[in-house]
Amino acid sequence: MKAPCQFLLCFVLALLFTRASAQTGAAGFFNVKAYGAKGNGKVLDNQAIDRAITACAKSGGGTVYLPAGNYLCGSIHLKSNINLFIDAGATITGAPAALNAYDQAEPFTDTAYQDGGHTYFHNSLIWGEHLENVSITGRGRIDGGGLTSKDKEHMGDPTGGSIGTGDKAIAIKLSKNILIRDVTIFHGGHFAILLTGCNMVTLDNLTIDTNRDGIDIDCCINTVVSNCRVNSPNDDAICPKSSYALNRPFITENLSIVNCQVSGFKEGTLLDGTMVPAKAGWSNGRIKFGTESNGGFRNCVVSNCTFRSCNGLALEDVDGGIMENIIVSNITMMDINHYPIYVTLGRRNRGPKSTTRMGHVNNILISNILVTGADAMSGIQITGTPGYPVRNIKIQNISVQYKGGGTKEQGEKQFPELERGYPEPFLLGVNPAYGLFIRHAKDVALDHITFSTLKPDNRPAIVASDVDGLEIDHFKIPDVKGIKQLRTDKVTNLKIDNSPFVKE
């Protein structure tokens, strides 16, 4: 019996050592309850979590552990070399504004050429700056609770003012080697996740069901967003940007968005599984590059993604940056509001006059896209600006089912230029082409494209204006009696093959 007793004693000692390690921070493991966190959802726990983070960082790094419980919190301050691990059954809940538990928004020392959400970071639930090797992981949840979701720009003031108490769920700035994985974010405030000026970022297996933007990737390089589900009925789901928040143009490049799902269901209905479509407003649920684009976008891939009950894909370069070497492939879309695909070069040029020049859009490949239930308001739009065409655009293997129902009068109207306006198609009204509108472009290739309509549409399938170099091959569209399916104006070097209903 001696050996079993010795085994039992060793087991008990090992268990006690493990528990002591969890409580005291031995072996790089820091349980927030050892630092005063209650996890009862009634008292503020952010200071206790901060104590655990500070102890972890001082010891050289490790894991800050949140066991199951509800942690009511104001601002939590990240530090380098820590993994904030939110375990299954644990929730960080954003405190109500009345508790004054969030940090004040920091001063912004220059003119803000971007909205308040991109200007201020400290008034967030979880934030950090100038960090290295930071992770937020675990199967737990971040519930924004009392986080705010409006800024002055969206209330009519474009000056980018401070947006108040408790702004974002996670905000990380000027940091590198960032990992956010497995967590769920509900009601994330202005942005559920905002990354600005970061390098080597991985966002993986996240579930976000929120009231404004889901993920904003601003002025970041070497970023991978993978296997994420993002529902955002009132704004964009995944939104790369390159704003002037760093007081200079800074490009977003080497970005991959793969195997993700975006949607515009009513907030909370992704998480509860009912997936109730929200009414389409300004924007909802899409993947959008821009609008902030002072630096621009380069070497970016969007692949193997689904869109559901939301706006379509948008590539918007309007603030003087570049947009080049962009590949979009293997996308399915269902019940799409406003438009399925939107590529535009505008001249809003929001930035200092001394540094802001006209941008350019070049080398875009969009392929293998299947769309059903697309809005009758607008088809695919590819537009530059007078004197500044978008260049080398190729669209291939695209099938779009439109709702149809457009009138002949709508097809004959003159479509307004974007120029310096906000780049949102619905602001320009119904498009004269139900399928594809191209203006101010050079070297556009359309290959193996099929359009269909649920109801007859009396607008042209294609309207092209001020285009030099337009190749159309294997273009399949319905034949509508009395409607010319291709309308052109100032189109040179036009080549049409294997497209019986597409005629000049």
UniProtKB/TrEMBL annotation:
Which keywords accompany this UniProt record? Hydrolase, Signal
Provide the Rhamnogalacturonase A/B/Epimerase-like pectate lyase domain boundaries.
29-232
InterPro entries referenced in this protein's UniProt entry, alphabetically? GH28_Enzymes (IPR051801), PbH1 (IPR006626), Pectin_lyas_fold (IPR012334), Pectin_lyase_fold/virulence (IPR011050), RHGA/B-epi-like_pectate_lyase (IPR024535)
GO MF entries: hydrolase activity
Q: Is Transmembrane included in the keywords of this UniProt record?
A: no
Pfam families, sorted:
Pect-lyase_RHGA_epim
Kindly indicate where the leader peptide sits in this chain. 1-22
Gene3D superfamilies, A to Z: Single-stranded right-handed beta-helix, Pectin lyase-like
UniProt xrefs under PANTHER family: PECTIN LYASE-RELATED, PLASMIN AND FIBRONECTIN-BINDING PROTEIN A
Name this polypeptide is given:
Glycoside hydrolase family 28 protein
